[in-house]
Specification:
The structure holds two protein chains of two kinds. By secondary structure, chain A is mainly α. In chain A, helix 5 packs parallel to helix 12 and helix 7 packs antiparallel against helix 8. Chain B contains two helices and no strands. In chain B, helix 1 runs antiparallel to helix 2. The chains are: A mainly alpha, B mainly alpha. Chains A and B meet through helix 5, helix 6, helix 12 and helix 15 of A and helix 1 and helix 2 of B.
Chain lengths: ~500, ~60
C-alpha cells in the first residue's frame, strides 16, 4: 500500500465526514438535553448505526482478529456471548427511556443519584466512569497510530496517526454535540461493515470458497476449531473475558446513555434490532478475518500485526485494503468521540452540577464544552506517553465498569437498594479491580472482572440490607415505570 | 418484571448457559466447522429472534 494512496483515502474520509457533520447541525444546541441527547429525538436507523459504531472500536479488526489468530474459535464465542448480553437492552432499554423522559435525566449516573436519593452516588459513579474510560480512549488513539504506521511501513509516524484521530474525534463531537457524533458515526459504521465484509468475501474466494476455507483450517490447525483448543481459551480465561463484556450494554455510559436518546419506543426497538444484526455480521467478519490471517501468515510473534499484514497481502486489492484501513480508523474515532461527549456530560452534570451550588443548565453546558477538549488532550497525552498504568486501566475498563452493574440492576428491580450500598460497592470493588490489574493477580485463578462483579454484588446487597432505603423515591420511581410501560405497550 | 418478560429472560439465560457449556463439554473434540463454530452462531441467532419477539409490540 503506497503512502500516497493512504493519504488520499484519509483525506477523502475526512472531507466526507466533515461534510456530514456540518449537515447534521440542526436547531440550536443551547441546552444540555439538546447537545448531549439530541433533544431525545434520534431516529431508529441513525440510532442503530451510531450505537454500532460506538460499541465496535478498532478492537474488532485488530484485537478480535488477533484473538482468533491466537486462540481460534473461542474468540467467536467470546464476542457472540457479548452480543447475547445486549439482550439486556430489551429489558433495561424501555425502563431507562421512560424515566429519562419523565425526570429529564441526561446521564446514567444522574439517574442513579436521583433514584438512590443521594448526590454522592452520582459524583462517585461519574468519576469512576471517567477513571476507566479516559485510558480506554487513549488506547483507541494509539490503535490508530500503530495502524497507520503498520500499513505504510513507518511512512506515517505513530504520532501523526494519534494526532489525526484526536483532532477528528474532537471536531466530530464539537460541531453539533451528539447530532454530529450520531451522523458521522452512522457514516463510519457503514464504512466499517461494507469494507470489511467485501474483504472477507475476497479472502474466502481466494481460499476456494467456504468449504475450501474451512478445509484448510481443519487440516492445518484443527485445534483452532475447538475450545480450549490450543489452551489459549481455558474455561476460566473465557469466563473472565466474557462476564464483564456480557454487561457492557448497561455498564458502559457511552452506550447506556444512548437509551435516553431515541425519539420513541419504536426507534429504541429499531436501534436494538439493527445493532444485533450489525454486530452479528461484523463479529463473523472479524473472526473469519483472524482465521484468514492464520492461514496466510502462520507463526507471527505479535498477533496484532495480523491485520496490517492481511491488508497489505496480495490477496487483497490495494484499493479495498485502503478502504478497510480507513474503516478501522473510523471505528476508533467513532468510539472516542462518543466517549468524549459522554464523559464531558458526566463531568458537567454530575460532578460540577453537584459540587457547585445553584448552577444553571447553561452553565453546565458551557462547562461540558470546555471539558471536551480537555479530556481529548488528556487522552492524547496518555496515548503519547504509553504509560504502563494507562494500559492497565484500559484493560481494566470493562472489569472496572462492571462494578456499577448491581447498582443499575437495583435501580429498576430492587426497592431495598441504598445509596450506601452503591457507594461501597462501586468504590471498594473498583479499587480491588485496579489493584488486581496493577499487580497482575488472579486469586483462585479468577480474572479481575469476576472479582469485581462478585464483590460489588455482595457489598451492594449486604450494605443495603443494613442501611435505610429511600422508600418514597423508590416506590414513586418504580410504580411510574410499571404504569408507563403498560401504557406504552 | 412482567411474566412475559420473565419467560423470555429465562430462555435467554438458558441459551447463554448452553453457549458456555456445550463448547467446553460435548464439542471439545469436534475440530470441524459444524462444532463450536456453528453452535455459537446458531445460539446467537436464536437470541436475536427472541429479541425480535420481546420488542415486537414496542411503540404500538
Amino acid at each position: 500500500m503506497t503512502t500516497t494512496l493512504v493519504w488520499s483515502a484519509i483525506a477523502a474520509y475526512i472531507a466526507i465526514a466533515l461534510f456530514v457533520a456540518y449537515l447534521s447541525r440542526k436547531g440550536k444546541q443551547d441546552n444540555m438535553e439538546s447537545y448531549f441527547l439530541g433533544d431525545r429525538k434520534l431516529g431508529g436507523f441513525v440510532s442503530a448505526l451510531s450505537y454500532s459504531a460506538t460499541t465496535y472500536s478498532a478492537f474488532m479488526l485488530v484485537g478480535l482478529a488477533g484473538l482468533t489468530y491466537n486462540g481460534g474459535v473461542g474468540a467467536l464465542g467470546f464476542e457472540l456471548i457479548y452480543l447475547m448480553g445486549v439482550s439486556l437492552v430489551a429489558f433495561f432499554g424501555p425502563r431507562f427511556w421512560v424515566v429519562g423522559k419523565k425526570y429529564g435525566y441526561v446521564t446514567p449516573s444522574e439517574m442513579l443519584g436521583d433514584r438512590y436519593n443521594n448526590k454522592h452516588v452520582a459524583i462517585i459513579v461519574a468519576i469512576s466512569n471517567c477513571l476507566f474510560l479516559i485510558p480506554y480512549s487513549a488506547v483507541q488513539l494509539s490503535g490508530v497510530g500503530y495502524l497507520l504506521q503498520g500499513v505504510t511501513n513507518n511512512a506515517i509516524p505513530y504520532s501523526t496517526g494519534v494526532i489525526i484521530a484526536t483532532v477528528l474525534a474532537l471536531i466530530f463531537s464539537y460541531i453539533a454535540g451528539i447530532r454530529s457524533v450520531a451522523w458521522t458515526d452512522s457514516l463510519q459504521s457503514l464504512f466499517m461493515i461494507i469494507g470489511s465484509t467485501l474483504i472477507v468475501i475476497v479472502l474466502i474466494n481466494g481460499f476456494g470458497g467456504l468449504s475450501g476455507f474451512f478445509e484448510k483450517i481443519e487440516t492445518s490447525q484443527p485445534e483452532l476449531m475447538t475450545v480450549p483448543g490450543n489452551g489459549y481459551f481455558s474455561f476460566l480465561t473465557f469466563l473472565g473475558l466474557t462476564i464483564p463484556w456480557f454487561f457492557f450494554s448497561i455498564s458502559n455510559p457511552q452506550v447506556s446513555q444512548r437509551l435516553y436518546m431515541p425519539a420513541s419506543l419504536k426507534s429504541l426497538k429499531t436501534m436494538l434490532m439493527g445493532f444485533l444484526v450489525f454486530g452479528f455480521i461484523y463479529t463473523i467478519v472479524a473472526v473469519v478475518w483472524g482465521f484468514s490471517a492464520t492461514l496466510l501468515f502462520p507463526g507471527l510473534e505479535n498477533p496484532d500485526l495480523a491485520t496490517p499484514l492481511v491488508l497489505s497481502s496480495e490477496l487483497v486489492p490495494p484499493i479495498l485494503g485502503v478502504i478497510v484501513m480507513v474503516g478501522i480508523m473510523a471505528a476508533a474515532v467513532s468510539t472516542i468521540d462518543s466517549i468524549l461527549l459522554t464523559l464531558s456530560s458526566l463531568f458537567a452534570k454530575d460532578v460540577y452540577g453537584n459540587l457547585k451550588k445553584n448552577t444553571t443548565d447553561q452553565m453546565q453546558l458551557r462547562i461540558g464544552k470546555i471539558v471536551i477538549p480537555i479530556i481529548a488532550i488528556l487522552a492524547y497525552l496518555f496515548a503519547e506517553m504509553e504509560l504502563s498504568l494507562i494500559a492497565v486501566l484500559s484493560v481494566a475498563s470493562s472489569a472496572g465498569l462492571i462494578v456499577v452493574v448491581p447498582a443499575i440492576v437495583g435501580t429498576f428491580f430492587w426497592k431495598r437498594g441504598t445509596a450506601a450500598g452503591v457507594l461501597s460497592s462501586v468504590t471498594i470493588a473498583g479499587l480491588i479491580v485496579i489493584l488486581l490489574e496493577l499487580f497482575q493477580l488472579k486469586p483462585l485463578g479468577l480474572a479481575s472482572g469476576l472479582w469485581g462483579i462478585s464483590i460489588s454484588t455482595l457489598l451492594f446487597i449486604g450494605v443495603s440490607l443494613v442501611t435505610r432505603a429511600p422508600e418514597a423515591k423508590a416506590n414513586e420511581f418504580l410504580s411510574y415505570i410499571s404504569e408507563a410501560l403498560k401504557k406504552a405497550k | 418484571m412482567k411474566s412475559n418478560e420473565l419467560k423470555w429472560a429465562l430462555s435467554i439465560l438458558v441459551i447463554v448457559l448452553l453457549a458456555y457449556v456445550l463448547p467446553y463439554t460435548l464439542l471439545t473434540d469436534i475440530m470441524k466447522w459444524y462444532g463450536s463454530f456453528l453452535v455459537w452462531i446458531v445460539l446467537a441467532l436464536i437470541t436475536i429472534i427472541i429479541n425480535y419477539f420481546l420488542t415486537k409490540d414496542w411503540g404500538k
